[in-house]
Amino acid sequence: MSRLVPYPLLSLSLLLMWLLLTRFSLGHLILGSGIALIAGKAMAALQPAQPQIRRWGSVFRLVGIVSLDIVRSNAAVALLILNGGRHGARRSDFLQIPLTLRSQPALALLAIILTATPGTAWLEHDAETGVLLIHVFDMVDEEEWIRLIRDRYEALLLEIFE
Amino acid sequence: MTHLETVPLWLALPIALFLVLGSTLTLLGTVGLVQLRSFYDRLHAPTLGTSWGAAGIILAAILLFSWMQGRPVLHELVIGAFVMITTPVTLMMLGRAALHRDRAEGRGGVPAAVPHPDPSEGPPDVGALSPEDLESTRPPKAPPMAIR
Amino acid sequence: MSATILSAALTYAQFALALAGCLACWRLLRGPRAQDRVLALDTLYVTAMLLFVVAGMRLGTTFFFEVSLVIGVLGFVATVSLAKFLIRGEIIE
């Protein structure tokens, strides 16, 4: 099984994408499955590090939290642009956060989360020291941002990947 | 305008709502792009367009096309997933480029690079190439750019 | 009734996205620095992509989907290579 389908998640999502791009029929199901299997084989030749998802429950909780945060921060940033940054009182700043997260897929996911929520921009991550440099659009309280990222995202990501 | 008339009112309202929401957020993002003062502030503005701006318009398109063709038409989700995955890459690279350039030019207001010892670089695997060959294949580092 | 609502919303969306494209163009021309222009170009690509999705909705065809996907891919590649150029001063090394 694992020799035939080395990357089941990748193959499954490729098949899903194939069916989304065409219309659902038996022919497309077979063709898409073939392509997904071949692509999985090709991926195995590249030998990327395989992420291990440990807890699926935390994945769904993370998705819920992140989608809520995206809506909220969208509204917050849109409002800040509309009223001119609380009429000039908004302060943006850089923020350095020491992370304990080391696994590459988890860091990639954190980058997607931080960029998808308007108001935080990922700038730099140092792989040796684990210090993450982000830019915060509306810096009210430094401690609160650090707590938000470490407790809300990093803890969940640690649960999922490590 | 014939295909728009077939849509019932209960579906037309959410489609219109998502459209207006998505396009307004994208517009606000570019307003921020014009209005904000520093580059790092402006880096935040387009994420409005790529998060809920794109999501709203894509949801509206999914609803409309699914009704018109009488089956779930979800292929617009591919655009959404694509935008979701590529935006962090582009913005991260742009942010790093700006940071790198500001540091190289010694502009203030940018945090310094995290200090750590230089990674001991082993001799590169040059194969049969002699040092002279290497010198000729690898030109010296480009001089500081003339672009601003 | 629903056709009126939908066509009003589509017109509004098209105007808003076109205006957004113009604003991105303004930042693209204005600068002041190279990274601002690249950021504006990226925003312009995203706006054009969304504009094509809305145009497809107005005309009732799904053909514009491929157009917007191609624009998205080109925009991604263009922005990444431009950012890489800003970091290193060269793309192919």
Automatic annotation (TrEMBL), chain A:
Name of this chain's protein:
Multisubunit potassium/proton antiporter PhaE subunit
Which family does the entry's similarity section mention? Belongs to the CPA3 antiporters (TC 2.A.63) subunit E family.
Membrane topology of the entry? Multi-pass membrane protein
> In its keyword annotation, does this UniProt entry include Metal-binding?
no
InterPro entries in the record, alphabetically?
Cation_antiport_E
Q: Where in the cell is it found?
A: Cell membrane
Its ancestry begins with:
Bacteria, Pseudomonadati, Pseudomonadota, Alphaproteobacteria, Rhodobacterales
Q: What highest taxon heads this organism's lineage?
A: Bacteria
Q: Which controlled-vocabulary keywords does the entry list?
A: Cell membrane, Membrane, Transmembrane, Transmembrane helix
Per the record's keyword annotation, is Lipid biosynthesis included, yes or no? Answer: no
UniProtKB/TrEMBL annotation, chain B:
Region spans: Disordered:
105-148
Domain of life per record: Bacteria
**One Pfam family in the UniProt entry:** PhaG_MnhG_YufB
The alphabetized UniProt keywords are: Membrane, Transmembrane, Transmembrane helix
According to the record, the segments passing through the membrane are 12-36, 48-67, 73-94
Please state what the protein is called.
Multisubunit potassium/proton antiporter PhaG subunit
Q: Which organism is it from?
A: Cereibacter johrii
Q: Species lineage, top-down?
A: Bacteria, Pseudomonadati, Pseudomonadota, Alphaproteobacteria, Rhodobacterales
Automatic annotation (TrEMBL), chain C:
Query: What organism is recorded for this protein?
Result: Cereibacter johrii
Tell me which UniProt keywords the record has, alphabetically: Antiport, Cell membrane, Ion transport, Membrane, Transmembrane, Transmembrane helix, Transport
Subcellular locations according to the entry: Cell membrane
Q: Protein name, please?
A: Multisubunit potassium/proton antiporter PhaF subunit
Please list every transmembrane segment annotated in the UniProt record, as residue ranges.
6-26, 38-57, 63-87
Give the record's family classification. Answer: Belongs to the CPA3 antiporters (TC 2.A.63) subunit F family.
| Family matches, as InterPro entries | MrpF/PhaF-like (IPR007208)
- Extract the NCBIfam families matched here: PRK06161.1
Keyword Membrane recorded: yes
Pfam families cross-referenced by the UniProt entry:
MrpF_PhaF (PF04066)
Give the principal location in a single coarse category: membrane
Organism placement in taxonomy: Bacteria, Pseudomonadati, Pseudomonadota, Alphaproteobacteria, Rhodobacterales
The yes or no answer to whether the keyword Ion transport is present is: yes
Q: How does it sit in the membrane?
A: Multi-pass membrane protein
